[in-house]
Amino acid sequence: MGKIRISLLAVTVFALSGLTMANMTMAASSDPNAPAKPGFARGRMGPGFFGAPLITIALNHKSELNLTTDQVTNLENIRSHYQSQVTPVQQQLSSIEKEIASLMQQTPANLVQIKSKLQDAEKYRTDLRYLRIEALENGRSVLTDQQKEQLKTLVRSRRGHSRAPQGQPS
Question: Which of 47, 110, 114, 143 stands the most exposed, by the fewest C-beta atoms within 10 Å?
Answer without folding.
Answer: 110
